[in-house]
Amino acid sequence: MQGEEIRSRAAAAFALIRERRPLIHQITNYVVMNQTANITLMVGASPVMAHAKEEVADMIGFAGALVLNPGTLEPDWVEAMLIAGRKANELGVPIVLDPVGAGATPYRTETNLAFLRELDIAVVRGNSGEIGALSGAGGQVIGVDSVTGVADPAAVTVAAAAGWSSVAAITGARDVISNGERTVGVDNGHIWLTTLTGTGCMATAMIGSFAAVEEDHLVATVSALACYGLASEKAAEEAKGPGTFKAALYDSLYHLTPEDLEAGARVEVL
Amino acid sequence: MQGEEIRSRAAAAFALIRERRPLIHQITNYVVMNQTANITLMVGASPVMAHAKEEVADMIGFAGALVLNPGTLEPDWVEAMLIAGRKANELGVPIVLDPVGAGATPYRTETNLAFLRELDIAVVRGNSGEIGALSGAGGQVIGVDSVTGVADPAAVTVAAAAGWSSVAAITGARDVISNGERTVGVDNGHIWLTTLTGTGCMATAMIGSFAAVEEDHLVATVSALACYGLASEKAAEEAKGPGTFKAALYDSLYHLTPEDLEAGARVEVL
Amino acid sequence: MQGEEIRSRAAAAFALIRERRPLIHQITNYVVMNQTANITLMVGASPVMAHAKEEVADMIGFAGALVLNPGTLEPDWVEAMLIAGRKANELGVPIVLDPVGAGATPYRTETNLAFLRELDIAVVRGNSGEIGALSGAGGQVIGVDSVTGVADPAAVTVAAAAGWSSVAAITGARDVISNGERTVGVDNGHIWLTTLTGTGCMATAMIGSFAAVEEDHLVATVSALACYGLASEKAAEEAKGPGTFKAALYDSLYHLTPEDLEAGARVEVL
User: Fold this and answer.
1) What's the whole-number mean pLDDT along residues B215-241?
2) Phi, psi of C198 (to 5 degrees)
3) How many angstroms separate the CA of residue A128 from the nearest CA in chain B?
4) How many CB atoms lie within 10 A of CB B25?
5) What is the torsional sign of CA C18, C24, C30, C31?
6) Does residue C135 sit in helix, strand or coil?
7) Mean per-residue pLDDT for A150-166?
8) CATH number of B3-225
9) Chain B residues in contact with C144 (beta carbon < 8 A)
10) CATH homologous superfamily for A3-229?
């Protein structure tokens, strides 16, 4: 598969999201719930945030994807994530995991390793330190930021993906996405994404939206990150700083078309 | 009561909110807390978010209205909502209920039905599917969106209001509000309200603010929805998309005057 | 210490935040988590929100400051705040407390008094009613707003600081900050800060960021409030109302320089 084909499939998936409006069930952290719901709406999907053990399995029945983001984790929420995840696996609903702050505390690391062990995860997206910490490749995470990334993100991504039998994505100046066999780089994005909280979490919500309509999870992940990055580039043209950029990002993604995505995606098969 | 009288009372209620600054106690969902607090401030009231069983009854003592929004419900929160609701009933503080996602899972449906059964609710505001599901009129809810609305929102609103002895409001392109005897349509609003999360929840917070100063809950609800819709129309003139619209909505409501509301409210007695 | 020296140290501390990027561990309320994380990023520090008893003590090990904000308190969170606070004291990490709504309910008042009794708090920042209620000086709090402030904020601040062996800060049109011996007024700010939820909580996050790099907590607090107020003044020039002001505030703080702060801080030693 070459870059041109991926761009074409990205555009088709984007159109499908807006046609089908898949439900994206998100069990995510308090800090970013509002913005991951909104970015899901802007791309054209339908978000629902539901975390009660009393209802997560019922909600999954309608979902096109499940996003797990233990950024403000606690035991009850972790348990609900596992219940939802098992039901998603049973029903064939793809799970996208955002291991926020893995590596920063033992509790975060162990919780995310438990998810990887007990659930069949379709895609894991993190920063260099988080993926490094979970895959045993090194990197240092302080708080929720990757302070010392891994030396070779592409190699770590490939190894992580192979080890987990998942798509793995390390996002950064260049996003690197691999399923262990095929690896793709995405160069869309803007520096202001690094200045706001929750922009990684929004990327993960985007991946959930694309995974709900595109069965090849590598293509779904690449498409989502190119789409998100491209919208951020257009937003930066309208903004004066991170605050106005955040509002402009919603506007730009809302107005972005599949044709824009096909023309503007900067993907490279590695 | 004709449209002209309602517009006049809407303006008077709006002025009263800004004069008295009533406390609006909101036990609401994680996704929208920030924005329902802000919209409450913009209309001129004072929001407080408090959900601990240890304090909700004490907080109600100062409240002009109680807003219950189980959008990210779990048992502890539901219990706190019931404690707060009973105290509100005891003190005569009006309760406004937003049954987010009722119909989507049994847990959501049953929780909202329990509220309707055990509490004296002044106003229930939802989308067509939510009100349809709770009142037994049909409609389909997936996640928190009404996917298939009820065929005749006005008839369903009247029947729901009569059945619950509450004001019922279905918001949509036309909002329909009824107390079972009188029914009013509101045509203010803008399509971008449908593109952001929590805009229905903000409408409910607006209703709480008006219900704190206007004893006729039908008039309060109509006034709130007209005020909110009118602010959204003005905001859209300043915005380039949903992101800038959200910021502009706060600006426009903050600057809106009772005179603007009397002149711009589009209400029709049905 | 005169105003000129404080302005110079404020600029130096601001530069240090951007150089060191200290981790600011915040256990805060649901309403404002997103915006306190973002304001922390804009000033140049690194926020982390973590509240699980399973990890708070581990997270503190990397933190430059701990911010406790029980604005949507419940017993589990209060317990986590105490665990984190004790660890912070053990490690010498400064604690900044925002006693949201103290005085409004017995639960809020007693929880904040317990923090003051059981922890060594570096800085307490609140509105006039909150500091008045906690220090026994009077003032009335309804919800989370100070309705009747104390008659003489400067005197109350001095007495509170002396009583708690902490820096105390009452923010308002003029911010008054004291460590019981030295007292400083800060006149930066803009009226629109009073029209949005969480602006006091953001001020507290700013204080945490400065306290992570400046050991004199009086100077840190004055610097933070001057920096925040100055950014708000510049933001107001770009905004049309509270909504656009909020976005502009992030922009203006992001672009603000230590030189701007030294030139624009309006501080007066009282």
Assistant:
1) 98
2) 80, 5
3) 28
4) 31
5) negative
6) helix
7) 94
8) 3.40.1190.20
9) 46, 48
10) Ribokinase (3.40.1190.20)
